[in-house]
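Hi everyone,

Forwarding the result from last night's run.
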Amino acid sequence: MMALEQHSVLDPRTGGGPERPAPDAGPPRRAARRLLTPLLVAVLLAQMAAAMVTTAVQQTPTIDEPVYVGTAADYLHEHRVRLNPEHPPLGKLLVAVGVAAAGPHVDTSLPGDQGRFGRHLLYESGNDPWRVMLWARLPVIALTLLFGLVVFAFARDLAGPVGAVVALALYAFSPDVIAHGSLATLDVPAAGFVLTSAWLLWRARRRPRRYLPLAGLALGAAVATKMSALPAVPLLAATAAWAVWHAGAPDRRRAAARAVAGAAVVALAAVAVVWASYLAVDPRLRWSPGQHIPAVHGLRGLLVRLLPFPEAYRDGMRVQFGLENRPWQGFLFGRLYTGSRWYYLPAALLVKTPLGLLALGAAGGVAVLAVRRLRPAAPYVLLPAAVLLAAAMHGSRDLGTRYAVFVPMFLAIAAGCVPTLRWRWAPWTTGALVLFVAVSSLRTYPYYLPYANEAFGGPARTHLRLHDSNVDWGQDLGRLADRLRERYRGERIWLVYKGSGVPSSYGIDAADPREVPAREVRGLLVVSDSAAAKARGELAGLIASSRPVDEVGHSITIYRR
């Protein structure tokens, strides 16, 4: 790692150039500083790795994972795109690295939808679901750790080594990042690639020829992982133009031409990555959708037709628009509703983001806007998160903060700028708030998915405020099986489970209480908290007339009847 005193940060006198070297602190002190920062980086990433691997080992498949794992296995065996077209291939190719290492038996002739195919792979093909899921999750865990290095490098460019360690600590202890970075899903990879692109564009202000193509490749990786990253393309292309303009040229006309060329380089590189991800699956680009592709008209239809991507990508966009038109149910602060609320994601982020990160991120954001020497960073740190959050708020699926997992990433970068402020209280307050975040995160271990901060009662009360992937995404079926064996062996079990797991595969012998008269439901009633949040009619009556006696992972409640 580069010696800390040789790394430049924003100069308070120029607003962007390198600051003058600090006075020589002597060889012993320099050597200690060289060792301290790499050691802190290693410790922070090691604890994050331990948290994610532990979570990956203990959790059963969440609702989306069997689809992605099954699609990854299909890529490996069929070498064509036919399942899960609503998400591009790159993230699932990453998962496929782990699936290939696990070497499961795959029956590609199975008819049916992508969810059934994934469940068949895990539970009906003679494979060990624990082993397959762990291997599928490990590549995402590794990528999440690499994004931690991006956070460190980005913050070091802006605020020096102290700010970089602060940013990395906030990232490494973020419960949402740990929770979704330990799953074989696409949210953290897509968000991390956008973050990487923004960082490379920041560096392109000084060396555009080196960093613009790399920024375009990172942006393309985001778009080739999740279509929700598409709003970042025009924004980061414009940011690329701004970065090239900042690099300077002898005259305005030449500077403008170079800026346009810089934006084109980023956009073309992004498009190339999307094509490459489909070609990596199938060099012949065959496309035979295994599901209905809805017709999309109007402005959305025109947008889909104009996309310079393979037909499978454009059909995936049509599927996404079809999903947006469904009447999804949301749950916020105890209220169940149909449709979406524009304020859902900000409210959910307020619940699920550690208080210390909220405070430091807000202070850092204000500092980036208000302090002259930090202001050049605003288009690279604040604008991508704001635009992507606005786009996500416009969606129709109020299902979790995973749709905005980029927010804690960019907040950590902004928070890293706080120690650079010349305020007497800044170093001590920053240290105290980072410690507060660390303690809050460690207290929720290993139940990161249902995390809520202290202002909202912690993870034990998240299910009263939010539902779905905020709390209960089917991840605790294995823990439920262990609890029933340990404490309730031989009792009659009635189960309402929300998830993709198969209870019998974990030794749970249970019946659905909704299929018999209520008077026959006696013994233990086990209900996923998301199902309880949406309960109406007979199930609501069963829950109301039962006594809660236990909970599993802050996501499943056990009642006695």
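The mean pLDDT is 92.

Cheers,
N.
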